[in-house]
Amino acid sequence: MQQGWIQRLAAAGLAMAVLASPHAGLAQDCTPKVDGSALLVPGEVQVSINPISPPMQYLGSDGKLKGMRVEVGDAIIDRLCLASVHIRVDDFGTMIPGLQAGRWDIINTGVFFTEERAKIIYLVRYENQAISVATLPGKASEIKTVDDLAGKKIGVDIGGYEENKLKLLDQELQAKGLPPIQIMIFNDTNINYQALRAGQIDASFTIDAVSAEYAQRGISELALTGLYPSPVAIAFRNPDLARAFAGELQAMREDGSYQAIFEKYGKSPWEGPFDVKGPGL
Question: Could you count the other beta carbons within 10 Å of the beta carbon of residue 58?
């Protein structure tokens, strides 16, 4: 079954790979809680993931998927008595089109919630997140406010909330008569930080959790944090699957397992409702 799926992905012309998952088989005594019609493959959830954002989702030294979002997603899939097939997609810009085209069931890679996205895909908010500006160590004092980004080379990942916010900020700064930001767009966060270390950019514009991880490793230094706070969601192709995930998130909140995962990673859980937002809802 997986081999045919891989061939279909290869035919799509996108950079992907099916990753080994500890959740690849169903327990014998577990009955799936989601009707097969809500899934591309009955009994399985095809999970699109971009594992380049530690500590949220990344590949460990053993080659296995790790991170807070991985744990949350796999916990829900287990509770639904489904198997998971993780599909690595390195270019975030292809993820939402791929979801709409029916290449996977969900995106579990930190999709920022926006009303515009809720018009085209189904979203369940479950995480709080914001954006940081990170520099090389010893350079953070050069950026005290967002105005200090004017005229600087700033790296950002392609196709996401961060890129949109950086472009809007650039417009605002230019409206003040300040020089434009030199926006450098990268395919993923690892390349973004490699460019920072090489001195090709002055700062990186990435989410708080990832920026803090790189700073803790001594690779960068945080200049600004908490910019443009917004809930983050899991994205779905099918509304019934989204409702099933939302129900299990609520059950996890009630039994404490949801909060426990966030506490393990030192992150603040979403305190709002686990409702489904999407086309026609």
Answer: 20
